[in-house]
């Protein structure tokens, strides 16, 4: 996972989001979520900028600023903000020296981990938007597969990558697999994965 994948994913999500810009984003809720479409896209933007600053700051948790994209912004502005922040993150990812790490609650992530988290946020939340507006979003298999394998190494490999990524994010059921409640990803280097699914057990 690198900056190029971040940009590729942002472009794909942008294309879908622009196709549903005629809906009322501020009033359209996402089923099974407490957010509207607008709030969901704003959250994606927030995450992209958080990841950029976390990776650039290194291993120290940096919480000196409050990052908040205004969900009441126009859909076009929210989409442009997403692609802009994705571009900034991509440049930081590609400019991070080998071995560089950044703070994240789930572990000290490397550049590939931040790139994968960004792709996961964009892909899954764009799918959430699709659910809200009643229009399915299905991304290219390349992005879904790369994101899945980087963040969820415990996920099955003999199932559809996109459906499996949604399953790993607790969005759907996968035949023969337990529903993922309290899920989390592995953003530190894969060499540090313990070999078990780290989701919270209820």
Give structural notes.
The chain is an all-alpha fold and 202 residues long. It has six helices and two strands; from the N terminus they run H-H-H-E-E-H-H-H. The protein has helices at 3-19, 37-57, 75-95, 111-133, 141-151, 161-168; strands at residues 101-102, 109-110. The chain has a two-stranded antiparallel ribbon with strand order 1-2. The mean pLDDT is 96.
How does the SSE layout of this entry go?
Elements lengths: L2 H17 L17 H21 L17 H21 L5 E2 L6 E2 H23 L7 H11 L9 H8 L34
Antiparallel strand pairs: 1-2
Average of pLDDT: 96
Tell me the quaternary state. single chain
Computed structural class: mainly alpha
User: What is the number of beta strands?
Assistant: 2
Q: Give me the strand/helix succession.
A: HHHEEHHH
Q: How many H/I helices?
A: 6
In which range does the helix fraction lie? 40-55%
Main sheet properties: 2 strands, antiparallel
> What is the C-alpha radius of gyration, as a whole number of Å?
16 Å
Shape type: globular
Terminal CA distance reads 32 Å
Strand adjacency order, main sheet: 1-2
Strand content: under 5%
List keywords for this structure.
202 residues; mainly alpha; 6 helices
């Amino acid at each position: 996972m690198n900056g190029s994948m971040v940009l590729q994913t942002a472009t794909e999500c942008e294309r879908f989001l622009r196709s549903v810009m005629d809906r009322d984003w501020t009033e359209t809720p996402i089923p099974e979520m407490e957010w509207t479409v607008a709030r969901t896209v704003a959250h994606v933007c927030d995450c992209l900028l958080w990841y950029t600053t976390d990776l650039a700051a290194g291993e120290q948790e940096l919480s000196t600023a409050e990052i908040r994209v205004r969900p009441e912004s126009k859909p076009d502005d929210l989409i442009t903000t997403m692609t802009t922040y994705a571009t900034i993150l991509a440049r930081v990812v590609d400019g991070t020296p080998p071995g560089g790490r950044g703070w994240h609650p789930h572990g000290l992530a490397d550049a590939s981990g931040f790139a994968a988290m960004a792709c996961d946020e964009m892909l899954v939340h764009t799918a959430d938007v699709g659910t809200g507006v009643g229009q399915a979003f299905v991304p290219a298999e390349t992005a879904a597969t790369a994101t899945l394998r980087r963040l969820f190494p415990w996920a099955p490999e003999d199932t559809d990558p996109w459906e499996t990524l949604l399953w790993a994010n607790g969005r759907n059921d996968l035949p023969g697999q337990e529903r993922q409640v309290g899920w989390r990803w592995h953003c530190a280097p894969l060499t540090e994965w313990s070999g078990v699914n780290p989701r919270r057990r209820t």
